[in-house]
Amino acid sequence: MRYTYNAETCKYEPVIVSPKDAAQRLVRFIGISFVLGVAALLYFNSRYPPIDETFQTQINQSLKAEWEVLYKQLDRTSVQLSALEHNDDNNYRVILDLQPLDQSQREAGVGGRAKASEGIYYPLVRQAYEQAEKLKNRLEIEAQSLQQLQDELTRKEKIWASRPAIQPVSNKDLKQLHTLFGLRMHPLLGYVRPHNGLDFTAPQGAPIYATGDGSVAIAQYSETLGNMVFIDHGSGLQTRYGHMTKFIVYAGEKVKRGQVIGYVGNTGTSVGPHLHYEVLHNGTYLNPINFFQRDLNNKEYEKLIEIGSQSAISLD
Ligand SMILES: [Zn+2]
Description:
Blueprint: E1 3-6, E2 11-14, H1 19-47, H2 51-95, H3 103-108, H4 123-162, E3 177-179, E4 182-185, E5 192-195, E6 198-201, E7 207-209, E8 214-222, E9 226-234, E10 237-247, E11 254-255, E12 260-264, E13 274-281, E14 284-286, H5 298-309
Antiparallel strand pairs: 1-2, 3-6, 4-5, 6-13, 7-12, 8-9, 8-11, 9-10, 10-12, 10-13, 13-14
Residues 195, 197, 199, 276, 314-316 line the site of zinc ion.
């Protein structure tokens, strides 16, 4: 109950509120409260997003950060793969005489599989899938390329090993070479004729080496070359060794470069212990001096030719 001071009666008298006034005040109060409440709610909503939305935003942000890490890793892998491809094309393939792969070949990938990214809705995820797919294709191509390099290397190693590339007798001071390839006076016939090989002087019984890997085609005695051995090296190359005191290999035997096949002698038409050595390609005589790459540097090569040029008469 509220009181008010009445100056006329000099008394405090209770304030009587009519039910109509009370009802009006109540309506006004409820109205103002409602308006203030709505205003406060709108203000709060505009400043603070709902909890669910906040949570989603946080998830999105961390997902985005993880995607960025994923992209960086994909990029790094791509750079590493590019370095490997570059080495493959510009070093390994050049050394092995193979053509570099072109870029479209490298990116085309293997086979015609469906794209892994098909059916993926989110562009960010699809993009990563496509990038990963491209990398996978490039990797498969590179793996195939490395296998091809490996096969080629094995093939070339076989060819290199079978190529005649050393001197057939020990010749450290280079003085063993007696006569060069070319026109030479025959020691017994007494006239100039082609000498189809090199003559190496060496003590009777000095070892004779196979100059490259191959298989023995002939190991027998002949009137002219005496005890002789022919070795086939593949690719049309053959080496022949004559005037041996004896041979220690048989026809059909596989031999390795540097393996002893016989010993220096004076058999057949020969005027002293020496080795007559020939290199043939598809039946044509080649100058064996061009086949000593494994033995000689340029200086030694020149010295060998100089020493070999001094004698105009072959030992045959
Ligand atoms: Zn000779």
